[in-house]
Write a structure and sequence with these properties.
This protein has 307 residues and is an alpha/beta fold. The protein contains 11 helices and 12 strands. Keywords: DNA-binding, Transcription, Transcription regulation.
């Protein structure tokens, strides 16, 4: 028969994908955790977690069992063991935040600055986006908060608007010494295009529109990352169309930030969490810290204004 501790070990392995990290999270000797994992495997008649190049990955049975395990632990913590608490001043909890490279770059440095004196031992893990699995990862607690623009997230996912965003073009000064970027020059130029498949439907729609406008022969570089693309644009003769806040990283002596010659949809960046963790004190604290991002549009420090 499995115990409450077995379920806790299961949850820790789902979150960390590592026996050593799970043992560290639970402050448990690694041999003890391995013994609990062996007993879990015997109970379910399944490996539950298999070793891969990315760490321990859950089997389909583990993924199926996860919601029931989490509900049992949530019931214990919320109803049977008294009200849960979270003290940022003493906690060493690790929060998992899913976002694109731009999202992490925008959020994490500010967050670290904001919490430095409030939560000195709290840790953060940057989780790359995987849109097809994001709802499940929020539901299981593998991801605490997701940041981005995902209108297709539903099924128990709660959201809060952080700030509006728009697209701009990063253009070499040598290509556009002065004046605005015309549609003819835009079509004639070489471009860097970012694959939007895992970044949310707005990015994917914009990618498809740009691909149609400039044509495949004018797409010199196709990248998975806005951050990588921004550095390439800064050192090349290519045009990059990107969310405006990324341009705050660029050397504007080498590039111009201009409005696109075509109307592109703006979007709203939000934070997302699952309703199962809505009342979790730690999750609520993290959401409160992230809600300070709503003031970014008034700070005037995010990105240079388009020419």
């Amino acid at each position: 028969m499995i115990s409450f501790m077995h379920l806790t070990v299961f949850q820790a392995l789902m979150r960390t994908k590592s026996v050593s990290l799970a043992a560290e999270m639970l402050d448990m000797p690694q041999p003890t955790l391995s013994r609990h994992l062996k007993q879990l495997r015997e109970h379910f008649g399944n490996q539950l977690f298999v070793r891969t190049s990315r760490g321990l990955e859950p089997t389909s049975m583990a993924i199926s069992a996860a919601p029931a395990v989490y509900q049992t632990l949530e019931l214990y913590h919320s109803r049977l063991s008294g009200a849960p608490t979270f003290d940022p001043a003493t906690s060493d909890r690790e929060f998992h935040i899913a976002a694109s490279d731009v999202g992490h770059l925008l959020v994490l440095p500010r967050m670290l600055q904001w919490v430095r004196g409030l939560a000195p031992d709290v840790r953060f893990k940057a989780i790359p986006l995987g849109g097809e699995k994001l709802i499940a990862r929020l539901e299981t607690g593998e991801v605490d908060i997701a940041i981005g623009s995902f209108p297709a997230l539903y099924a128990g996912v709660v959201e809060q608007t952080l700030f509006p965003e728009e697209y701009v073009c990063v253009v070499p000064r040598s290509y556009l010494p002065a004046g605005r970027l015309t549609m003819n020059r835009f079509k004639a130029a070489r471009h860097i295009l970012v694959d939007g498949r895992h970044l949310g439907h707005i990015h994917e729609d914009v990618e498809k529109l740009l691909r149609k406008i400039v044509g495949p022969s004018n797409i010199t570089v196709m990248a998975d990352s806005f951050l990588l693309s921004a550095h390439i644009a800064e050192q090349s003769e290519l045009i990059l169309t990107t969310p405006s806040r990324l341009t705050g990283l660029l050397n504007t002596e080498r590039v111009r930030i201009v409005k696109p010659p075509v109307v592109l949809p703006g979007f709203t960046v939000k934070q997302y969490w699952h309703e199962r963790f809505h009342d979790d004190p730690g999750n609520r604290w993290l959401r409160g810290i992230l809600s300070r991002m709503r003031g970014l549009s008034e700070e005037g420090e995010d990105a240079p204004a388009p020419d």
